[in-house]
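I would like you to help me understand the sequence and structure tokens below and explain how sequence relates to structure.
___
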Amino acid sequence: MEKKKIDIFEVVLIWLEGLDGRIAFLKSELINFLKALKNSKSFNNKKIIGMRKNTNINRKFNEISEFLLSRTLIKDSNHSYFTIGTKSYGDIEIACSLYQIGYISYSSAMYLYGLTEQKSSGIDFSTPARSVWKKYKVSYERERKNYFLHYPSENIRIKSNYLNVYARSVTYIPTQFNANTRVIGIGDLFLEMIRYPALCGGFTNVMKIYEESALLYLNDIVQATNVYGSDIDKCRIGYILSVHLNIINSSILKWKASSVSRGGSRKLLSSNPYSPIYDDEWCISLNHPIFD
């Protein structure tokens, strides 16, 4: 019995529909799909019409792209990706759609939350370290045949911006900021501000945001610090909240007791030299000019 047949254009329409509500995809994703079709010679147990063993993939990609563009199913970004449909999207939304493992972080997240008016020079995007990310990729591509994950790239232009990619050994469960945007949770962001102030406008800017907003987001900050914070994270954030901002609760008191029992000398900023200006209660060197 002769195998049923399906046209290559119909196959691509099915593939496009299966992109899980995404608003954009990399051109390389479509190319990889076409390569997989060429190798398999079939789709859903049907022989593909319009794809042969000697098919030139680049020409076929151009042919398929023109087909989709002519029907306004996609829009060309003139960069390395297509957006889906006719609607226009922001660069952050597109980044989250192109790279499904990761989220907006640091200065870009601060701007989204309205904590700062200072925009990042690029799109700050955190993702797992490659060794962890590869495990996600294997699992994803096993479950979703014909769909491929790509590691976030700083070389791909998204509208007028590029990604600033930060690979982290520990990543947070992101918050769905809107339908198309994943962002670091607000409490986790305050924790990361203390860990990486240089990525958040500098320590002076971080302190300004703590002064303006820490009380508003106190429960989120404390929860994030309890779950993800190290001893030094708790010491630094505990000092800022209790001494600098006069904010106290039961968790902060526990952090303080632990800090005192451990003793030793810690620095508020790991990147700055040790300072003789010292807080005895938190056993921490206040090594930034704002404490001089």
Observations:
- The chain has a mean pLDDT of 93.
